[in-house]
């Protein structure tokens, strides 16, 4: 098993310093759970190096409340140093720990060329691609009141359509290697009566881009109480030959490798016999 989606810091945490001891503790916990390799995948936007992207939310002219909510969220989350983070991850690798260096990269519509320039030159092993916001709306974050209220103002089908379009654009950009939590739009339990059309589009986006898809236990810790992706979407990934990684999306030590046996059962039921791992952004297959 792999845990290919891990954060060093909780949301809202202000002191964003990476340490070798923390990475070593993550590795030790993961190995005790039978995980052979982990990927550190902190959010790119939490680093000062992403600050040049500031203001992207102002392109969403529809709602001032969403824009100011996103501006506040961005300010509250920022402060890490990407150089230091990579340095610590490389030191962990050099010490023989079973860790690869990654990032969770958000989809910034119209700005992925800037993102690629900012990330060029860093020795990443794997980049996760995520859609967490639609325009200025952080749809998966109910801690911001304006974001939570927005769910009441939109139709579920329209949200899923917007999300899926963003996922398609992210995949087509070629910036990242793995689609993280592919059906995140279900996070609060809002699922269309007939989601098949969206599942088909998500699977096609992964297949046509050559990206892998992440199977994550994080959804079990959210109101939807279901892994990402839903079984019908995982079946479509399998049918189209989309490789998968496994992940907990932990933001703290106790959750590392969370529910790995349940994740394994999902994969086995869908017919998967291997996982995708990465080194220097080159894929290889490993045993489940
Ligand atoms: Zn995420
Ligand atoms: Zn994450």
Provide a short characterization of the protein structure.
This protein is an alpha/beta fold and 288 residues long.
Commentary on this structure:
This protein is of the alpha/beta class. The chain has a single domain, classed as TIM Barrel (Alpha-Beta Barrel). Helices cover 38% and strands 17% of the residues. The chain is built from nine helices and nine strands. It has helices at residues 20-32, 64-77, 82-94, 112-119, 145-153, 156-173, 196-209, 231-239, 260-270; strands at residues 2-6, 37-43, 99-106, 126-130, 178-179, 212-216, 244-247, 274-279, 282-287. It has a seven-stranded parallel sheet. A two-stranded antiparallel sheet has the order 8-9. α7 (196-209) links the parallel β5 (178-179) and β6. α7 runs parallel beside α8. The longest helix is centred in the middle third of the chain and has 18 residues, at 156-173. It is globular, with a radius of gyration of 18 Å. One zinc ion binds at residues 104, 130, 132, 180-181.
CATH class designation: Alpha Beta
Largest sheet: 7 strands, parallel
| Computed Rg | 18 Å
Into how many domains do the coordinates divide?
Answer: 1
Shape: globular
What fold name stands as the CATH topology? TIM Barrel
Biggest sheet, spatial arrangement of strands: 1-2-3-4-5-6-7
Structural class: alpha/beta
Proportion in helices? 25-40%
* pLDDT averaged residue by residue: 97
């Amino acid at each position: 098993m792999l845990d290919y989606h891990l954060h060093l810091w909780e949301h809202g945490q202000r002191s964003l310093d990476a340490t070798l001891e923390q990475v070593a503790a993550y590795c030790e916990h993961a190995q005790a759970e039978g995980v052979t390799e982990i990927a550190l995948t902190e959010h790119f936007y939490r680093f000062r190096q992403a600050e040049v992207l500031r203001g992207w939310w102002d392109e969403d002219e529809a709602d001032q409340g969403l824009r100011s909510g996103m501006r506040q969220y961005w300010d509250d989350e920022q402060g890490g140093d990407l150089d230091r983070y990579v340095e610590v991850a490389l030191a962990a690798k050099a010490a023989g720990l079973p860790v690869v260096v990654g990032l969770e990269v958000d989809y910034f519509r119209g700005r992925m060329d800037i993102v690629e320039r900012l990330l060029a030159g860093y020795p990443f092993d794997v980049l996760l691609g995520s859609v967490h916001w639609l325009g200025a709306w952080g749809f998966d974050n109910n801690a911001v009141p304006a974001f939570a209220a927005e769910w009441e103002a939109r139709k579920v089908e329209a949200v899923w359509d917007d999300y899926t379009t963003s996922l398609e654009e992210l995949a087509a950009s070629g910036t990242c290697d793995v689609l993280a939590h592919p059906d995140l739009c279900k996070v609060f339990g809002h699922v269309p009566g007939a989601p098949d059309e969206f599942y088909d589009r998500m699977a096609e986006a992964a297949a046509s881009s050559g990206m892998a898809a992440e199977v994550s236990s994080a959804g079990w810790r959210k109101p939807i109480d279901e892994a990402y992706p839903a079984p019908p979407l995982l079946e479509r990934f399998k049918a189209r030959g989309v490789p998968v990684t496994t992940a907990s999306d932990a933001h703290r030590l106790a959750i590392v490798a969370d529910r790995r046996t349940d994740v394994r059962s999902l994969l086995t039921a869908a017919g998967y016999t291997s996982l995708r791992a990465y080194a220097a952004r080159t894929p290889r297959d490993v045993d489940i």
